[in-house]
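Example 3.2
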Amino acid sequence: MSEISELLSTLIKIDGVRAAALIGKDGFVIDHKSRNGNIDIETVGAIVIGGLHSSESIGNELDVGKVEQSMVEYENGIIFSRLFSDGNVILTVIADQSAMLGNIRYQVAKFVPEIQKQL
């Protein structure tokens, strides 16, 4: 797990990224890193899974396939989630509006295969 922690630590060094978490399909947090401790990551994990279930329902209804990634922009931040190919783990990144979304997407795409090897 230490290599996963190192990869998550690298993600939170990206400008504007506040936290990164690996969340199981059951909503429990596998591992996480944050710049400060004021994020209740356990609650975030549960809510991310709830949102994922809603997105899956929409995808099924519209027959557009499985959810691969999700991004929600808020007034003061961004929540970006990427599902692993097995569908059992989600990498979620919480960022400020100042973060470069393209860089986050690139870094997440780069790290997902590395993290999968460690699980």
